[in-house]
Design a protein that fits this description.
It is a single chain. This protein is mainly β. The protein has one domain (30-258, 324-337): Methylamine Dehydrogenase, Chain H. It is built from 1 helix and 30 strands. The chain has one helix at residues 2-17; strands at residues 21-23, 32-37, 43-51, 58-66, 71-78, 86-90, 94-99, 105-109, 112-116, 124-125, 132-137, 143-147, 150-153, 161-162, 171-179, 182-189, 196-200, 208-209, 219-224, 227-232, 235-242, 245-252, 258-266, 269-276, 288-295, 300-304, 311-312, 315-321, 324-329, 333-337. Strands 1, 23, 24, 25, 26 and 27 form a 6-stranded mixed β-sheet that branches. A hairpin with a 2-residue loop joins strand 21 (235-242) and strand 22 (245-252). It is globular, with a radius of gyration of 20 Å. The relative contact order is 0.16.
């Protein structure tokens, strides 16, 4: 009753002020529990990406580095909801993952793009497309790749065509996301400069420059229609595209926490991962405490209980639905909220 009253009062205050409010504690009966931990003394596992295409299947990819600085690519996966995990070596260092379903997926590496038809248990190299950061597929054949340019494939990644007529030096397209036929690509200069946002509403047949009041390359997730979550500068924002202009609304920002990822599990129900750096700086030179927060209205953020051993410089979220959410860290941990 006491917690409910607290939330009720804060809901009224948030509605009046429009500010983000933090309420503690929350989710008392459940917590983020470690399911996988790479804890070998002579090496470390830095996880770069995590995808969970079903309630049973999760795949994480990254690099294992030994005490002498030698690196090798690695993928760890589960097919039973995290009860057991299998670690395999891969021939190139992974950067990112994309899975269309429980079995079919693609992995971007430092030397090309690979595909898997068995949920990440084995990988086959496709076209040696270089300088790629991410891929996104609308179906098994039709997909896009972004990096130094924007590419499109119609045969599952065997062949790609360049969609950008003029490539700009020292410029990278960092992210791509779709909701149905609506897609957004974000990019920007490697140094200072104005970002570029490309938008399509017909599955990539036509692209246009989207005017947006965003001043750095961003991570984007489309919520619905012309509304999207945006992560930049360690804070979480909401962007609304309205008649050729944009409205940028900050929905979570704390000076002593750096947001590294977020996921929308059902409309306005969102979860974010933040790192609390040691000391007073908002930079993260060494691993800090992992902090997880959830909001069901994008105004009140509730702290979630996290295993005390969870530390990181960066954490990556993945969700199949509101009941099956995982997070991976660059310190070799995978946690599930249960």
């Amino acid at each position: 009753m006491r917690i409910w009253c607290c939330l009720r009062v804060l809901s009224v205050l948030a509605a009046v002020s429009g500010a983000a409010i933090l309420c503690r504690p929350a989710e008392a009966q459940a917590r983020w529990r470690i399911q996988y931990f790479y804890d070998k003394l002579d090496s470390s596992f830095q996880i770069f990406d995590l995808k969970c295409p079903s309630a049973e299947r999760c795949i994480a990819a990254g690099v294992i580095e030994d005490k002498n600085g030698h690196q090798k690519g690695a993928v760890v996966s589960t097919r039973d909801g995290g009860a057991h995990w299998m670690l395999i070596d891969v021939k190139e260092n992974p950067h990112s993952l994309f899975f269309l379903n429980d079995s079919l997926g693609w992995m971007v590496t430092d030397h090309g793009i690979w595909s898997s038809d068995d949920g990440g248990a084995s990988w086959k190299k496709l076209e040696a497309l270089r300088e790629i950061s991410r891929v996104y597929f609308l179906d098994p054949m039709h997909g896009f790749a972004v990096g130094s340019s924007v590419y499109e494939t119609a045969d599952g990644g065997k062949n790609w065509k360049n969609m950008v007529s003029v490539r700009r030096k020292d410029f990278i397209y960092a992210s791509i996301v779709f909701q149905g036929q609506h897609g957004i690509v974000t990019g920007g200069p490697l140094m200072a400069g104005e970002p570029v946002i490309l938008e399509t509403e017909d599955g990539g047949k036509h692209w246009r420059n989207a005017n947006a009041a965003i001043h750095a390359p961003v991570e984007v997730e489309i919520v619905q229609g012309k509304i999207a979550f945006v992560l930049r500068d360690g804070s979480l924002h909401l962007v609304r595209w309205m008649q050729g202009s944009t409205k940028l609304e900050t929905i979570f920002a704390e000076h002593n926490r750096v947001v590294t990822d977020f996921v929308s599990v059902a409309g306005a129900d969102a979860i974010l991962a933040a790192i609390e750096p040691p000391g007073n700086s908002n930079q993260i030179p060494i691993p800090g405490k992992l902090k997880m927060l959830r909001s069901r209205d994008l105004k009140i953020w509730q702290e979630m209980d996290v295993d005390y051993r969870a530390v990181a410089q960066r954490a990556i979220l993945a969700a199949f639905d509101a009941s099956h959410v995982w997070i991976a860290t660059d310190t070799g941990m995978i946690l599930k909220f249960e």
